[in-house]
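Appendix B, Record 12. Input sequence as logged:
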Amino acid sequence: MIFYLSALLLGLCLSAMGLGIFITMKIFKIPDITTDGSYTLGAAVTAIGLIQGWSLGLILLFSIGAGAMAGILTGLVHTRLKIDALLAGILVMTGLYSVNLTILGRSNIPLNNVNNIFEALSIFGNPIYNELWVGILFLGILSALLAYLLRTDFGIAMRATGNSESMTRAMGINNDRMKIIGLAIANALTAISGFLMAQYQNFTDINMGIGIVLVGLGSVLIGDALINWLGIQHLWLRLLFIMLGCILFQMALAVALAQGVNPNMLKLITSIFVLAIVGIPRLIKREAL
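Logged structural output:
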């Protein structure tokens, strides 16, 4: 039971990243690889802040700001230098590896003896229940704020930019600015996942973000499949289902491990799982035609 609760907690901590990938992939149709770097960046800032004794609110703000700066840099490289979005993300992600290593000072920092967000907001005697409570709290706040943002005039303009750049350009909307802001928001959300994960697992590692974009992509695809299957139109419910996809993805990996799969094969299983999510519906659709 504890094993599956841990998978649930992982899904909750990674839900913010799922929302970020939802913005880049589903709204702007941009494959943003910056996620791998900004996730670790949020965790690195969190680790240093906790060791230095900063307040948790300040650490969260710095993590969000660092992630947003990474997204802005990717957006500037893509829009100002006219470099393909995929390549822009790879370039920034590669540079962030050195930045993160410089922030950490070494490859791994343990966080066993520091006060974390789960202890600061504890209301239950059982630490697992406190972790669940904090994860759900962040899930609710982030989904509500993002749903509100996307329903404002600015959010509608941002969504319209992803649907038709020629139309929004004709309406006087600065598409490049919208992309930069969208990437900033997406990577700020990803950094929040790094902030939570560093405190949940009690350490920050320089390689913790490698392949994390694949996990986020699979989670968003699961959530999107559920949204299409159930015909959900309400924006806030769509965001909740994207986060549910993050949880289901982690649960699927937990089931694989529970069946005795070698943990060294987890990355391969993740790749095959995402490939199945993407490929099987397309094969079924092709057969139907």
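The longest strand covers residues 108-110.
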